[in-house]
Every structure is written in structure tokens, then in C-alpha cells.
UniProtKB/TrEMBL annotation:
Alphabetized InterPro entries for the sequence: Aldolase_TIM (IPR013785), Alpha-hydoxy_acid_DH_FMN (IPR012133), FMN-dep_DH (IPR000262), FMN_HAD (IPR037396)
Pfam families: FMN_dh
Protein name: FMN-dependent alpha-hydroxy acid dehydrogenase
Signal peptide stretch: none
Cofactors that this protein relies on: FMN
Domain FMN hydroxy acid dehydrogenase: 32-412
Lineage, highest ranks first: Eukaryota, Fungi, Dikarya, Ascomycota, Pezizomycotina
Length: 423
């Protein structure tokens, strides 16, 4: 499947990820079988089988009746790759740079909260695999392991800190200081989730782990400002972890206090001061007007995202937003993408529409749920192999060649889905 003497293997700055296919085809001869199938529907089904009802809903629930989730997937279907033939892809390489970090591919780990729900090793396993594969890792400030522990697990990897901005400025700055001290090299402010959307299945069973078994989590309980706030409120987190968790979430994470552009200017200034000028991004941008405003106030980048359909039911597909935003400000700011990504072709299409980088979430969550660190590694190595093979067989030797000329786009049409729970 891939000649071990192929010159591409030697000239690349990254491993030839495509070799995983050869390895997997040969493995049965050595009595080795894969831990699970990485096809997205099979992956999803296996994760659902392994998780509790609560864990599954936290991974899979979307806002309302899933219209935005469905829009994300159908938007990818609308764009088709145009394969090119007789092109010298023997010279290909998947490596790229993001904010000065040379990484293995234009693929990163999106921030996802409370990974202990999926596996006891949680964020530690994910951060470790990200470092091994030389892919950017984003830690959610709603995570379950401490900022410091995740930084140690990621070693010399490229890591960014996703912030749910507390209305308590002292608490907010404490989080940023800890992130910088732990080697996180960019701040990503999530702008679309200062309050959780209405998610029918979650509210029906009271599925909010921070109010129940997980409490405040290690990020909160290793924070000096939050410990001070607990003391001021007379809450002993060891005796009453649920009350501590309630205070952490209600006052600092999904608190219901809307973000503003003016406050974001203050946050950028403070992050730049604390970090020594490291990049600042806004996540959740869907509007061209908001993208232009992000440029105006001095953001280094944006993540075009609708939170994978988990926040505004009936919203624009993130991929459709990406196309418009890249046309408007693509030459002025670093534009990255997430939402609805399931395959290498999805990544290709987002790059073709103008994204510099693509973050994935649910794929590695499912892998973590099924088999912890092994599962995350298996899913992400398979995705890297799929992407490497895709650019090879479709005739694109460099990432720069993947542009709008590489895809054919069907007209936007409204289609009533037969199954809104589409993968």
C-alpha cells in the first residue's frame, strides 16, 4: 500500500501518516487487530455503548431539535472535491505552522470540557497524544484536570487555553496567569457559551455533572482566587462538593453574563500583558460583521464555530459562515474552523474555503470514551492517515494548493432532513 522506499517518506518533515494504512492491512498476519472501527457512525455507536446515559448525552446532545447540527453536516455535503491527476504528490507534506508553531498537520484538538466523564484519565491522555503527534491541544477552562497537570502531560507540545470568561475579574486573571505559567501559548475566548442552550435530553434528567458527581473539578480547586471565594462563602468543598461545583459553574463558567466587545478589549490587553504578547483568538464567530469587529479590536485570530450545533438551534452552518468570513477578512486575521468535522474530506473542504487550521472534537471524544489514551491515539492517527492519503489520491501536493479551485460547490438549498440525528 505504500512502498517503504518511497522517497516521500524521507523528504517529509512529518511522518508519512499514510503508512498506518499499510500497517493496519498487514496486522492480522501478526495476530494484531485494531481496537475499533474509526468510521464515524461505527465510532459513535461504540462510544454510546461504552458510556453511561449521562456521559453519552454530554458528548452528543445538541441545542433544541438538532437543526444546527444537521446544517453543519449538510454544508459539508454541498461542497465536492475536484481530484487532479498526474500531479507530483511524491513531494507532499502535511506540516504547517500556526502562530509560529510548526505542527504535523492543519488539524488540532478542539477544547472540550470535563473529559473525566469519558474516561478516568481525561484531559491528561488527550494532551499526551497531542504532544506525541505534534498537533495543537486546546484545554477547556471547564476541564476536569488542573491547568498545571495538563501542561505537564503535554510536555513540550503546542497548547492553547480556552477561556470561559468569569465576570469576576480577579478570577479571570488568575486563570490566565496559571495558563501562562503552565506553558499555554494562546488564549481562546469562547464567545457563544456563557450560558448553556436548552438541550432537551440533558435537562430532562438533570444532566449537569458539576452539580452532581464531579463538583468543581481540579481547575477550580487548584485556583487560589476560587479557594478564597469558597472561604468567603463558607463552603467546604470536601464536605459539600456539589455546592462548590455549583458556585464554580454559576459564577465563573456558564454564568449567564453576556460578553461585550468593550470587555473583550480589556481582556485582550490583560492577556497580552500577562503572556508577553501571545496570540488571542475569539471562538464562536459566525457573522461577517463580528469577524470585522474582531479584526478592529486587535484579535490575532478567530475560530469560526457554532459550538457544533450545541448552542443556537436553527443557526447558520459553520461552514457557510466560514466561506463568507474568509471572503471578507481572510487576508487580515488568522481564521481557524471547527464544528461538524468527521472526516479528512471535511478538513480538506474547510481549508479550501479559506480556513488556515481545523479543530476536531467529537471524534477524539468518542475515541477517549471507548479506550482512553489508546482510543484517542487510534482515532487521531487514523484521521491523519486518511488526510495524508486523501491529498495524495486527489492530487494536491501542498496545503497551499487546497483552495476554492479545488472544490465544486452546489447551490444552497433547504432540505428537510429525514433524520436530524445525523452523525
Amino acid at each position: 500500500m505504500s512502498d517503504l522506499n518511497n522517497p516521500n517518506i524521507a523528504i517529509r518533515s512529518t511522518p508519512q501518516w499514510a503508512l498506518k494504512q499499510r500497517e493496519m492491512f498487514w496486522a492480522p498476519n501478526d495476530g494484531i487487530f485494531q481496537p475499533f472501527d474509526t468510521e464515524p457512525d461505527a465510532l459513535k455507536a461504540k462510544a454510546k455503548e461504552r458510556l453511561t446515559e449521562q456521559g453519552w448525552l454530554y458528548a452528543a446532545s445538541n441545542a433544541g431539535i438538532n437543526w444546527t447540527h444537521y446544517a453543519n453536516r449538510t454544508a459539508f455535503y454541498r461542497h465536492r472535491i475536484i481530484p487532479r491527476m498526474l500531479r507530483d504528490t511524491n513531494t507532499r507534506d502535511t506540516a504547517t505552522t500556526l502562530f509560529g508553531h510548526k505542527v504535523s498537520a492543519p488539524i488540532g484538538f478542539a477544547p472540550v470540557g470535563i473529559n473525566r466523564i469519558y474516561h478516568p484519565t481525561g484531559e491528561l491522555s488527550v494532551a499526551k497524544v497531542a504532544q506525541e503527534l505534534n498537533l495543537p491541544y486546546c484545554l477547556s477552562s471547564a476541564g476536569s484536570y488542573s491547568i498545571e497537570a495538563v501542561g505537564e502531560a503535554n510536555k513540550d507540545g503546542c497548547r492553547f487555553f480556552q477561556l470561559y470568561q468569569s465576570p469576576d475579574d480577579e478570577q479571570c486573571l488568575s486563570m490566565l496567569e496559571r495558563a501562562v505559567e503552565s506553558g499555554f501559548t494562546a488564549c481562546i475566548l469562547t464567545t457563544d457559551t456563557w450560558q448553556l442552550a436548552w438541550r432537551h435530553h440533558d435537562v430532562n434528567i438533570g444532566n449537569y455533572a458539576f452539580y452532581h458527581e464531579h463538583g468543581a473539578g481540579d481547575i477550580a480547586l487548584n485556583d487560589p482566587v476560587f479557594l478564597k471565594r469558597l472561604k468567603e462563602a463558607g463552603i467546604d468543598h470536601e464536605k459539600d462538593p456539589k455546592r462548590a461545583g455549583q458556585k464554580w459553574m454559576d459564577e465563573n463558567i456558564w454564568h449567564g453574563h453576556a460578553h461585550t466587545w468593550e470587555k473583550t478589549k480589556w481582556l485582550i490587553k490583560e492577556w497580552k500583558r500577562i503572556s508577553g504578547g501571545k496570540p488571542f483568538l475569539l471562538k464562536g464567530i459566525q457573522s461577517v460583521r463580528d469577524a470585522k469587529k474582531a479584526v478592529e479590536i486587535g484579535c490575532d485570530g478567530i475560530v469560526v464555530s457554532n459550538h457544533a450545533g450545541r448552542q443556537v438551534d436553527g443557526a447558520i452552518a459553520s461552514l457557510d459562515a466560514l466561506e463568507k468570513i474568509c471572503d471578507a477578512v481572510g487576508d487580515q486575521i488568522v481564521i481557524t474552523y471547527d464544528s461538524g468535522v468527521r472526516t479528512a474530506s471535511d478538513i480538506f473542504k474547510a481549508l479550501a474555503l479559506g480556513a488556515r487550521f481545523v479543530f476536531v472534537g467529537r471524534l477524539w471524544i468518542y475515541g477517549l470514551s471507548i479506550q482512553g489514551e489508546i482510543g484517542v491515539r487510534h482515532v487521531m492517527r487514523a484521521l491523519l492517515a486518511e488526510f495524508d492519503i486523501l491529498v495524495n489520491v486527489s492530487g494536491y501536493a501542498t496545503l497551499e494548493e487546497i483552495d476554492k479551485e479545488a472544490i465544486d460547490s452546489l447551490p444552497r438549498v433547504a432540505i428537510m432532513p429525514t433524520d436530524a440525528h445525523i452523525t
